[in-house]
Write a structure and sequence with these properties.
Elements: H1 5-24, E1 31-36, H2 48-65, E2 70-75, H3 92-101, E3 108-114, H4 127-137, E4 144-150, H5 162-165, H6 174-189, E5 194-199, H7 224-237
Helix pairs in contact: 1-2, 4-6, 6-7
């Protein structure tokens, strides 16, 4: 994308949109994911400098709406596999480091960690790999939010089939999902630089990024994973 009017128009439009959204929900929302996945999904073909400018503009738009807003830059596919095959992308740590070094005013990085799909960055990982990638981002100088994590409760079809997406010890079921979530939360929250972990899918839906990944069934019945997470929550906050 040229540095002229085309980029300026996109940046101004994005700034205006973000400003209006923040103004509308100012009294209800304090934490904002101001920009998400620009390290991976660069559909406009922005240069590296333009990516940073878009990131800066998004944060400024939220800051203009509220000085108290907590601004999060969300990183998709923290494993960085996309960089080897997708042009106009930036490795996660490079993007994070440049966002910090360029003086952009924001509060935390969010990590999207979805597992259970035969797609770049979404294959099943063991807990040692997960712990290692969190440690890899530890020195960036900003708190980490696990802003999106999900994993299936049973085997799916197509891209969601465990034969291509991966399994954790055994085939997926509600018990396996609950055990995985409990271990993931314990590992993530043991890191001093991880502030929060958010499970992103409450109920099973047809349009879920990861099939059958809800804490509740489509009929809103609690799964074993819901009870596991509730038990962990009670253990943490009853101290």
């Amino acid at each position: 994308l040229r540095k002229g009017a085309e980029f300026e128009k996109i940046r101004e439009t994005a700034y205006e949109f973000a400003s209006k959204v923040v103004a509308r929900y100012l009294g209800s929302i304090r934490e904002w994911c101001v920009i998400s996945g620009l390290n991976t999904f660069n559909h406009f073909g922005f240069s590296f400098e333009q990516v940073l400018e878009m990131t800066r503009a998004a944060n400024l738009a939220v800051k203009q709406g509220s000085d108290r807003a907590l601004k999060i830059i969300e990183i998709s596919n923290p494993w960085g596999e996309y960089y080897a095959t997708t042009p106009n992308t930036i490795p996660p740590l490079v993007y994070m480091d440049m966002a910090v070094q360029s003086g952009i005013n924001f509060d935390a990085f969010g990590l999207v960690m979805r597992f259970g799909k035969n797609q770049s960055g979404m294959h099943i990982r063991d807990m040692m790999q997960i712990s290692a990638v969190l440690d890899y981002f530890g020195p960036v100088g900003k708190p980490l939010y696990i802003s999106d994590v999900e994993v299936p409760s049973r085997d799916g079809v197509g891209l969601h089939n465990s034969k291509v997406a991966g399994v954790w010890h055994e085939e997926w079921d509600q018990s396996r999902q609950g055990q995985w979530i409990e271990q993931f939360y314990k590992i993530a929250l043991s890191k001093p630089f991880v502030d929060t972990v958010t499970y992103s899918n409450l109920t099973d839906r047809r349009d879920s990024t990861i099939a059958h990944s809800g804490l509740l069934t489509a009929q809103l019945e609690p799964k074993k994973s819901f009870r596991s997470l509730k038990k962990l929550h009670n253990a943490v906050f009853s101290r």
